[in-house]
TrEMBL record:
Segments traversing the membrane: 57-79, 91-110, 122-143, 163-180, 187-206, 212-229, 236-255, 323-346, 358-383, 389-411
Bias (Low complexity) ranges: 447-485
Pathway: Cell wall biogenesis; peptidoglycan biosynthesis
Biological function: Peptidoglycan polymerase that is essential for cell division.
UniProt membrane topology term: Multi-pass membrane protein
EC number(s) stated in the UniProt entry for this protein: 2.4.99.28
Superkingdom classification of source: Bacteria
Protein name, UniProt field: Probable peptidoglycan glycosyltransferase FtsW
NCBIfam families per UniProt: ftsW (TIGR02614)
Enzymatic reactions: [GlcNAc-(1->4)-Mur2Ac(oyl-L-Ala-gamma-D-Glu-L-Lys-D-Ala-D-Ala)](n)-di-trans,octa-cis-undecaprenyl diphosphate + beta-D-GlcNAc-(1->4)-Mur2Ac(oyl-L-Ala-gamma-D-Glu-L-Lys-D-Ala-D-Ala)-di-trans,octa-cis-undecaprenyl diphosphate = [GlcNAc-(1->4)-Mur2Ac(oyl-L-Ala-gamma-D-Glu-L-Lys-D-Ala-D-Ala)](n+1)-di-trans,octa-cis-undecaprenyl diphosphate + di-trans,octa-cis-undecaprenyl diphosphate + H(+)
Native source species: Ornithinimicrobium kibberense
Length: 493
């Protein structure tokens, strides 16, 4: 018998060709994907993956998931003492945070599956609901805490409407400016109805409740959306001047805020006993006690009634005390990865709404993180905003995870991302089906490699043929008939 071999077309010489040509030792053709699988991750392979259309999706998913998981661990550690003192159970605050985390993850998964068109349709209902809930703060449902009136009580639980107002402002602003993209260079066209009346009313209600930190975040979202939409730069000079004057006026009208500013600007905090220095000094004590490598998880000293709000606004100080410099730098690195992923969405998006919504989320999450971290380490005055995805607080965690769901939906809409994600999902489904088929066959007593039995009737040569004999193929080029099984009747039934 004559054996013929199909000639192989030689590829380009040397590694790194477009088709992965070149000859490997032994005459085998070397392909980049297989070579990288053998050699492990390299800088080139990491760069190729980062340039892929699915990279923003997975970077958002992984960074947000790690921040949320770290937040749950640190909330348990930082709140255990206070929970035990107040309720006799060290897990009260932690279990509440877990409840909101589970609900937030479910909402994020739902939001990630929503198409971008559905998010656009939610713009008006979301902002109307946000305005209604924020106005309810000043009714009988409102709750005041530490001088701020920014909560409402629903079914025995307190909800902070301004956190959901941030997400509503992002979606509404992106939808309005995307619809006005042809006239967005005109200040009046771009300002109505985003700034006048929606933005002014929503921010005004928050400031009326004396929550300056949240009001500043909302104002930054508004300005960032207008900047990303392409409003002329000269317009922002006037807006910046008005914003600075407004913040200065609100700060000057509050003795507590002025005290925080004086503590931040002046070198007066020689000890915690100085008015206004207690929280700032104990946050510095926590970071200093942690040193390079930290005291160990759960070993914080400042959480024992010394540092106020250790599981909320100042949770980064507890992270630094227990996990040291690696812990704090890890938090910064995760926020940096999240910022890079959102920037990729902004730069690669072809749809105006996608670009603006991602820009609004970038300003919200990263701007709030900068304010919180700056307050903890003393570079900014204490403003009183939580660290997104990490700090304790049900409303803040729910709203942030819903925003992550929006980002995942936007990342799925990037060119080539949906097809790549569908291809990877189908590959995983095929792998799972193969694994489960093998396990189910083994569970029924089948031998490894036996053919899977289906309900379809197929022709067969013998009723008593075993699966191995029935499915065994004859050698290529052989004219010998397959052996007849022994012990069965010689005719067909």
């Amino acid at each position: 018998m004559t054996t013929t071999t199909r000639p192989r077309t030689p590829g380009p010489a040397g590694p790194g060709s477009a088709r992965g040509g070149g000859s490997a030792p032994g005459g085998a053709t070397a392909y980049p994907s297989r070579a990288r699988a053998r050699q492990g991750w390299t800088m080139e392979s990491v760069g190729d993956w980062l340039r892929s259309p699915v990279a923003p999706y997975y970077l958002v998913l992984v960074s947000a998931g790690l921040l949320t998981g770290l937040g749950l661990v640190m909330v348990l550690s930082a709140s255990s003492v206070r929970s035990y003192v107040e309720s006799g159970n060290s897990y009260t605050v932690f279990l509440a945070q877990v409840f909101y985390a589970v609900a937030g993850v479910a909402l994020a998964a739902l939001g990630a599956r929503l198409p971008v068109v559905a998010w656009k349709r939610l713009a008006w209902p979301a902002v109307i609901l946000a305005l209604g809930l924020q106005a309810a703060v000043f009714t009988g449902m409102g709750v005041e805490f530490q001088g701020n009136r920014n909560w409402i009580e629903i079914a025995g639980r307190t909800v902070q409407p301004s956190e959901f107002g941030k997400l509503a402002l992002v979606v509404f602003g992106a939808a309005v400016l995307a619809a006005k993209r042809k006239v967005v260079h005109r200040v009046w066209q771009a300002s109505v109805p985003l700034v006048f009346p929606v933005g002014i009313v929503l921010v005004g209600l928050v400031l009326q409740g004396k929550d300056l930190g949240t009001g500043m975040i909302m104002l930054a979202i508004l300005v960032g959306l207008l900047w990303a939409a392409g409003l002329p730069a000269r317009w922002f000079l006037g807006v910046g001047a008005v914003a600075v004057l407004g913040v200065a006026y609100l700060a000057a009208g509050s003795a507590n805020r002025m005290q925080r500013i004086q503590v931040w600007l002046g070198d007066v905090c020689d000890s915690p006993q100085v008015d206004g220095c207690f929280q700032k000094v104990h946050a510095e004590y926590a970071l200093a006690d942690g040193g390079w490598w930290g005291l160990g998880l759960g070993e914080s000293r400042e959480k024992w009634g010394l540092l106020p709000e250790p599981h909320n606004d100042f949770i980064l100080a507890i992270i630094g005390e227990e996990l040291g410099l690696p812990g704090t730098m890890g938090v910064l690195a995760l926020f940096a990865v999240l910022a890079y992923a959102i920037f990729r969405i902004v730069s690669q998006a072809e749809d105006m709404f996608t670009r603006l919504a991602a820009a609004g989320m970038l300003i919200w999450l990263l701007g709030q993180a900068v304010l919180n971290i700056g307050s903890v380490i003393g570079m900014l005055p204490i403003i009183g905003v939580p660290l997104p995805l990490v700090s304790s607080g049900g409303s803040a965690l729910l709203a942030a995870l819903m925003g992550i769901g929006l980002l995942l939906s936007l990342a799925r809409s990037l060119p080539g991302a949906r097809e790549a994600l569908a291809q990877r999902t189908s590959s995983l489904d095929r792998t799972y089906a193969a694994v489960t088929t093998g396990r189910s066959g083994a569970g029924r007593g089948s031998r490894p490699g036996a053919a899977r039995t289906t309900g379809r009737t197929t022709p067969r040569t013998s009723t008593h043929a075993t699966p191995r004999a029935a499915t065994r193929a004859a050698p290529r080029g052989s004219t010998r008939a397959a052996p007849r099984p022994r012990g069965g009747p010689k005719g067909r039934r």
